[in-house]
Amino acid sequence: MVKAKSHIPHGETSAWIAAACLLLVAAASCASPSAGGRDLAALEIPAGRAVRVDGVLVAGEWGDAAAVTIPVAAGWEVRVLLKHDAANLYLAFTHLRHGEAERYPEVLLDPAVAGGDAWRPGQRWFHSSYNLCDGDGEFNVYRRGDRFLCAKSKPGWEANHAPLAGDGVMEIRIALSTLSPPPSPGKVFGLALDVTDTKASWSFWPAGAALDHPASWGKAMSSTLLTSFFGPLRDDSRVRAGRALTGHGKGAQSRPRREPPRP
Prior knowledge:
Blueprint: H1 10-31, E1 43-45, E2 66-73, E3 76-84, E4 88-94, E5 97-98, E6 101-102, E7 104-110, E8 124-128, E9 132-136, E10 143-144, E11 147-148, E12 157-159, E13 169-175, E14 188-196, E15 202-205, E16 218-222, H2 225-229, E17 252-253
Parallel strand pairs: 1-16
Antiparallel strand pairs: 2-3, 3-4, 4-13, 5-6, 7-8, 7-14, 8-9, 10-11, 12-13, 14-15, 14-16, 15-17
């Protein structure tokens, strides 16, 4: 039997084999559930430029942000933009108005990823409508007895207020120093986003999240400068591990009627 001779010199063959091995190792690392210690199911929030919180989307102001969507009703989705800098988490909720209907944004944060079936201290609720309302270890904190707890401004965070113009935009800035522990680049924290009429309807990202059940919330991670250099996640399709960001017909939930946070 005559053996076929290789036309590749021995040195080049060895180099080709070494390169193939490196590719296999890299592929195995990418397929790992937690490559490099990072949770690949987490929404990656890119670093970006600071934002002027005024409810006006200036051209290029949010071009360095990630985006997710919250299905509200047939033909109505709220789009949420997210990014951070060294001191703040920034969010913009767009399309909050649809015909005669209007929704108000809420941000749910679990810095320690404590989860649980009930709220715990350190899990934060941020709500913006005609006033700013917030809670630590509790949600829907509009009143205590006869005392109205919401205000036009709050320490540690800011947002523009209703009434909304156009199709409705609310921008929010939350100081990382108000959270315990403060999120740091590459570290996972709990996150859920919702829009509500404050009376009977809440719609969520991620689909299936529940306001009163922190264990149902999603996960997020602020990107490192290296990740941001290669570019932010632009839309839902770029979320790590293909996490489903929408769920038409599944995102809306009903809750007992609450006191609307109006003046």
